[in-house]
Design a protein that fits this description.
- By secondary structure, this protein is an alpha/beta fold.
- It has 2 domains: 140 residues, P-loop containing nucleotide triphosphate hydrolases (Rossmann fold, 3-Layer(aba) Sandwich), CATH 3.40.50.300; 109 residues.
- The chain is 53% helix and 9% strand.
- Helix 9 packs antiparallel against helix 10, helix 9 packs across helix 11 and helix 9 runs parallel beside helix 13.
- The chain starts with 8 loop residues before the first strand and ends with a helix.
- Strand 3, helix 4 and strand 4 form a beta-alpha-beta unit.
- Strands 2-3-4-1-5 form a 5-stranded parallel beta sheet, sandwiched between helices.
- The longest helix is centred in the C-terminal third of the chain and has 23 residues.
């Protein structure tokens, strides 16, 4: 902002829960100025997932839990572009935040690209993204990237102690260890009470599960009807367990770890779109984790 000309397009990249959206709101507030709340400022436009149905809209308005659409639609982008044809309301700048830009529909991505190619004067774009590789290469080429680093486990534990002081220290430690350096992910693990899931996953990865008993425990910890949010969190938790194993693995165990992590990453990419059977999903996760123990035994032999 202190330079002669600030770039109009910014990609805020990093693990989900690393503070990118909070940074985007603060940056937008600095850009447009004033004392208003960023979420109600007329020159700050936030585009994100809308409620899935009209019933979900009612639930949102009533303060109840509601489901979201899986993607950010092109209609949302076009409505924003119509507003870009007018002057900013209170000053000479406006900010557009898209969170997460990973979930733009293909046609919505193309519409965003057009705005980035011909940005109206005084308009700045902040694209929050957990997986920059999912953005169009042409979008990435027209933006500057700000990367948000992972925090240490000790830093995450300190944040949990501040925001969840009443929680069991062991649960905070487990959430921090499984978060992959993301305070937001750790807080979500605490909120969803995933400590039991994490314990079952760690046991499967270390002990194996030839008789499927531990996978039964994993199923019980997951719950009978887990919603999509809990399913996604479970996949992220399993990936964190695999990543933790990789840090102390013997060389001969690494191929199995890489394969398990790759398969879990594929599940994570599919889960927001596909309707997985929760029971089969748990069995798949458990099987991938059990393969780590098998590879360890083979390497030791």
């Amino acid at each position: 902002m202190a330079g002669e000309r600030m770039h109009h397009g910014w990609i805020l990249a990093g693990r989900k829960g690393s503070g990118k959206m909070q940074f985007a709101l603060e940056a937008a507030h600095r850009l447009v100025g004033g004392d208003m709340d960023p979420l109600s400022h007329p020159d700050i436009h936030v585009l994100s997932h809308l409620p899935a149905t009209r019933d979900d809209e009612k639930k949102r308005d009533e303060g109840k839990p509601f489901n979201l659409k899986r993607n950010i639609a092109v209609d949302q982008i076009r409505a924003m572009q119509q507003r870009l044809n007018t002057r900013p309301t209170l000053g000479d700048r406006r900010a557009i935040i898209i969170d997460p830009a990973d979930d733009l529909e293909k046609s919505a991505s193309n519409a965003v690209l057009k705005s980035l190619e011909e940005p109206p004067q005084g308009s700045f774009f902040l694209l929050v993204t957990h997986r920059p590789g999912r953005l169009l290469p042409t979008i990435r080429s027209r933006c500057r990237i700000v990367r948000f680093p992972q925090l240490s486990q000790e830093q995450v534990e300190a944040i949990l102690a501040e925001h969840a002081p009443e929680a069991d220290p062991a649960a905070r430690q487990a959430a921090a260890a499984a978060s992959g350096g993301s305070p937001g992910a750790a807080l979500e693990f605490m909120e969803l009470d995933l400590a039991r899931l994490h314990k079952a996953m760690s046991r499967i990865a270390h002990e194996g599960d030839d008789d499927f008993a531990l996978r039964g425990e994993l199923t019980m910890a997951m719950g009978a009807r887990p919603d999509r949010r809990r399913q996604l969190a479970a996949i992220d938790l399993a990936r964190a367990v695999v990543a933790g194993e990789m840090a102390r693995a013997q060389p001969r165990s690494i191929p199995a770890l890489v394969q398990a992590h790759s398969s879990l990453s594929q599940l994570a990419a599919q889960a927001p779109t596909y309707n997985f059977d929760p029971g089969l999903l748990v069995m798949e996760i458990g099987g991938l984790l059990a393969s780590l123990a098998a590879s360890r035994d083979t390497a030791n032999a």
